[in-house]
Amino acid sequence: MQTLEEFDQECPLSMMFCKRLSEEEFEEQAVSYTDQALRDLFRTMDRNPALCEKVIRRRKQDELEKSGFASLIKAKFFRAVEGQMNHCNEVNGEELRCRLDSLKDEMMKVQEYAQVAAPPAKQLAEKRLIVSAEVHSPKSCMVPPTVPAAPPLPPPPVPAST
Fold first, then answer.
1. What is the number of alpha carbons within 13 Å of residue 108 lying toward its C-beta?
2. Helices 121-135, 23-47: crossing angle, 10 deg rounding
3. What segments bear the compositional bias annotation Pro residues (predicted)?
């Protein structure tokens, strides 16, 4: 009978399924994978615009609700009566295509902004070090001064006897 210890002996792996990436390689891959995923999404949106119709109609509903009081009342009424997909936010083929193109443009702008605004991993690592140093600094371990206790409440008034 074999007795197994809590931890078995190490056995070296003969194959590796991944490799360690440098920060630059990681950032390049992140950008390229995101760009590829966006291109795939856009291609799917172009091939089958009906997949995005619900999103487009919801956005149109929001626009109608924000475009004035009368429009707000009308949009809310039809939404309450007919539900999310009502004739108030209905889109025809040409409008759907136009709104899809607008949505794709917005998505690309957000992606471009994120690439420009996102700090490199090195800056994030430095920021994490600074924050962790502040958290573990002796100043943060000091006990804050205590607030003096509130004075005791006065006794309740004694009812007058007659």
1. 10
2. 120
3. 145-162
